[in-house]
Amino acid sequence: MKPDMKRAIFPGSFDPLTMGHLDIIERSTSLFDELVIAVLNNPDKNPMFSPEERCEMIEEVLADFNSGDCRLVVESFSGLLVNYVKSKNATSIIRGIRAVSDYEYERRMALMNKRLAPEIETVFLMASEEYSYVSSRLLKQVFLLDGRVDGLVPKLIVDRLRSKNGG
Ligand code: PNS
Questions:
Q1: Of 14, 35, 45, 68, which one has the greatest count of Cβ atoms within 10 A?
Q2: Pocket of ligand 1, beta carbon within 6 A
Q3: For the stretch 62-71, what's the b/e string if a residue is b when 16 or more beta carbons lie within 10 angstroms of its beta carbon?
Q4: How much of the chain exceeds pLDDT 70, in percent?
Q5: How far does residue 167's CA lie from ligand 1's centre (Å)?
Q6: Domains and CATH numbers, the chain
Q7: Catalytic positions, written as ranges
């Protein structure tokens, strides 16, 4: 890595990736030289997709994505986020904020991460209004109850949701 290169980590569960996540990825690409989309390995949360499946889906979605001069990397991680960020020599953590309801949780995480690793900055990007109500949790709930989720996740992910859930 060049000494002046700016690498950021966009961590999350991404179970699965939504258009809201994609919007944050797109906007981060104009701020950093490299963006690592870091998928949390969180078996305790009982995810619908394994970390490998989530990484694979994100890679497939990003294959058609024009990220300009920013390199995109997809990886899974476990353990403390700040340790992972340090191991990647990254300077920043990217998080999207959708609404006031996200703020308190994000504030606590950012302050805890700052305490653990003062050299790492959390950069908050405000989610675009059109996706500000979209979350992976709500999306899975709607999908499992036969609601329409087209347009809220990339097409490829709608297909994966269908094949994962029997058709
Ligand atoms: O998409 P999510 O589930 O809101 O992402 C949460 C995530 C992955 C950012 C958070 O759970 C995390 O950082 N987990 C790793 C463990 C850790 O470092 N916990 C302390 C955070 S203050």
A1: 35
A2: 11-13, 40, 80-81, 109, 112-113
A3: beeeeeeebe
A4: 99
A5: 31
A6: 7-164 (3.40.50.620)
A7: 21, 45, 98, 136
